[in-house]
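Example S7 (structure tokens).
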């Protein structure tokens, strides 16, 4: 029985690209804001990879984002007048239109929490900005590592005192779900075909037989409700 749903956040719950581009445009009007936001996000995985591979100890994503901002600013040949203020753009990302209502419906059926590479501080401030009604904050800070490392998913399950098979990972990224499934979690896929803009070519469709494949969070809630009626999901309020 699924007793908790844990969520990828960047891309799955919030539109990082448009939100960060808006913040960049306000601070650096001389640059292509969408290109800058995309380049900033492009430094995300390489920065985490060094930590996953053991070349560097754990560094919270807030600090990696700031380092990556400096790298991208140099590449664009610009000086950021207030680095810390612009770095906080990652705390002011807007949710996709279906997310708030969908999470509210899901919260009535099971515990809900982020399992993000964002720090607890970042995820808490983002939740306050976007109105994300989490029951708690899970993810990278607990494990002191980054997805798709197995310990990130397992630490989230352990924090809830649940076995992996009682937890469903929800994400718009097939690779995230594959890593979660590999350590025993259930999986839910929701496509976000606009995450990377009009030219997106990845994660447009499910690439495996995930446990739930939904059109949006409202559809995810409807399918979870069906699972609950079959006795496969435990109601959090029961």
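Recovered sequence:
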């Amino acid at each position: 029985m699924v007793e908790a749903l844990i969520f990828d956040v960047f891309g799955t719950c919030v539109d990082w690209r448009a939100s960060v581009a808006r913040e960049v445009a306000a601070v650096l009007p001389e640059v292509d804001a969408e290109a800058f936001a995309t380049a900033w996000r492009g430094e995300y995985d390489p920065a985490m990879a060094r930590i996953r591979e053991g070349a560097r100890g754990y560094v919270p994503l807030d600090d990696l984002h700031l380092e990556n901002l400096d790298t991208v600013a140099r590449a664009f040949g610009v000086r950021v007048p207030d680095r810390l203020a612009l770095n906080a753009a990652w705390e002011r990302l807007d949710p996709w239109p279906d997310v708030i209502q969908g999470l509210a419906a899901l919260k009535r059926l099971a515990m809900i929490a982020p399992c993000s590479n964002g720090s607890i501080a970042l995820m808490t401030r983002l939740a306050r900005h976007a109105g994300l009604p989490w029951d708690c904050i899970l993810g990278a800070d607990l494990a002191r590592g980054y997805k798709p490392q197995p310990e990130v998913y397992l630490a989230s399950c352990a924090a809830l005192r649940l076995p992996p098979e009682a937890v469903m990972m929800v994400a718009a990224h097939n690779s995230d779900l594959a890593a979660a499934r590999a350590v025993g979690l259930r999986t839910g896929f929701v496509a976000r075909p606009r995450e990377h803009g009009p030219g997106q070519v990845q994660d447009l469709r499910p690439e495996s037989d995930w446990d739930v494949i939904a059109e949006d969070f409202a559809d995810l809630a409807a399918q979870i409700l069906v699972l609950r009626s079959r006795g496969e999901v435990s109601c959090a309020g029961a």
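Notes on this example. The chain has two domains: 4-15+93-229, 16-91.
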